[in-house]
């Protein structure tokens, strides 16, 4: 009986962590059709961000040859809230080299509600609140878990996709690789 219990207690965590692991999705390049797609995402500050997808390029208009970090998140996700603080630090550290954009994947949130939530994090990057965010996510191959980050080089070429909470050190290693290119 003790052996059976011990075996079950040993196997269950292994199965749990194996099932929750999304390594197969980690660096999967987004699938973008050859037809160009344009997305105009409304920001919480009543402006717009223009993103175009064409073949293997993800271009954010007016980024002036900067690295782009697209963060897909929700307001109810605890890991997303932790990541907001990390992204504030990344934007501050690399403010001359990177553009961070938070893309809210949530319906029925007013800009005022989002601004109120983000005040406590001293967010220093652009955040969108737009129904087109769902279409953008779908066009990038879908978002299987949140938060999800896409890191894009200065030329609009996909570099890395991260699913789940990402340590700042990991992001910084990849950002430094892009800066050295």
TrEMBL record:
InterPro entries in alphabetical order: AhpC/TSA, Thioredoxin-like_sf, Thioredoxin_CS, Thioredoxin_domain, Thioredoxin_ResA/DsbE_sf
Gene3D superfamilies xrefs: Glutaredoxin
Signal sequence bounds: 1-19
Tagged with keyword Signal: yes
UniProt keyword annotation of Signal present: yes
Domain (Thioredoxin): residue spans on this chain: 30-180
MF annotations from Gene Ontology: antioxidant activity; oxidoreductase activity
CDD domains linked: TlpA_like_family (cd02966)
SUPFAM superfamilies documented for this protein: Thioredoxin-like
Protein name as annotated: Thioredoxin
Source organism: Aliarcobacter cryaerophilus
């Amino acid at each position: 009986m003790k052996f059976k219990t011990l075996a079950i207690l040993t196997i269950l965590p292994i199965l749990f962590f194996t099932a929750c692991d999304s390594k197969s999705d980690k660096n999967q390049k987004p699938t973008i059709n050859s037809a160009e797609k344009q997305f105009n995402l409304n920001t919480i500050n009543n402006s717009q961000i223009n993103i175009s997808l064409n073949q293997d390029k993800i271009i954010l208009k007016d980024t002036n040859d900067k690295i782009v970090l697209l963060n897909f998140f929700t307001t109810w996700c605890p890991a997303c809230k932790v990541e907001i603080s990390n992204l504030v630090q990344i934007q501050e550290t690399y403010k001359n080299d990177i553009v961070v954009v938070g893309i809210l994947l949530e319906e029925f949130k007013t800009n005022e509600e989002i601004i109120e939530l983000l005040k406590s994090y001293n967010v220093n990057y652009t955040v969108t609140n737009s129904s087109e965010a769902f279409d953008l996510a779908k066009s990038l191959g879908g978002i299987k878990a949140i938060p999800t980050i896409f890191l894009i080089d200065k030329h609009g070429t996909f570099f890395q996709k991260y699913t789940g909470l990402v340590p700042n050190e990991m992001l910084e290693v990849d950002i430094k690789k892009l800066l050295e290119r």
